[in-house]
Task: structure prediction
Amino acid sequence: MESTTANIPSWLGIAASATLVLIAILISWRERLGLGREVAVAAVRALAQLALVGALLLFVFDRGKLPAAFGWLAIMVVIAGFVAGGRASGIPQARSHAWWGIGIAVTLTMGILLALGTIDAEPRVVIPVGGMVVSTAMVTAGLGLQRTADAVDDQRARIEARLALGLSPREAFLEPYRTAMRTALVPAVDTTKVVGLISLPGAMTGLILAGVDPWDAIRYQIVVMYMLLAAAAVSAVVAARLTQRALFDDADRLHRVELRR
Result:
């Protein structure tokens, strides 16, 4: 099969695409949503951030080599931990638990893929693939923390009753924990179920636009979906388990936690 590479938009084309941003601003104004300024700022920020990232990627690809790529992933994990931990900021050490969950998920997933030779140990591969893992781990860890926080708020009396009956903190919190995990993992599971049926995923779309044979793009996308499933499960479980331990004191009493929604 002969492959053709898609045309890359010129800077003039990018300027023309700003018309789409104007449409979003117009809708906000017309419906009196009060989001016009935020939409404009978001569009400008996206342009500036992507331009900066592009310049940094050029440097990493040309001179930084693999250590710089891993350093980039570490920065991603730190930022992702701030975001995910902020979903349950009233929980003790929420950001620390998010960092551990995301960090372990990224290390385990990327380590397996690199060790087995499934992906190339090159910055051009490690950074974008690792970015997808970090993003999925961040969202899932955040959901896991948020649902765990909800369980503390909504089911405190039930948890304390189980503790009074002599159950350990782990046993007393088991049902709320499982509910939180199922809720956190549903998006990743559902996305995997319908991959290719509703929309073509990002990795597959990018490869096809780059002129790669669709069968090659499909094989790569399968690996991506499997690694994202693993990253989601690991990040959610690690973050929630650490949070569960922090919710109880040395006397197995449930802490009073003021949740900030």
Observations:
- The mean pLDDT is 81.
- The longest helix spans residues 36-85.
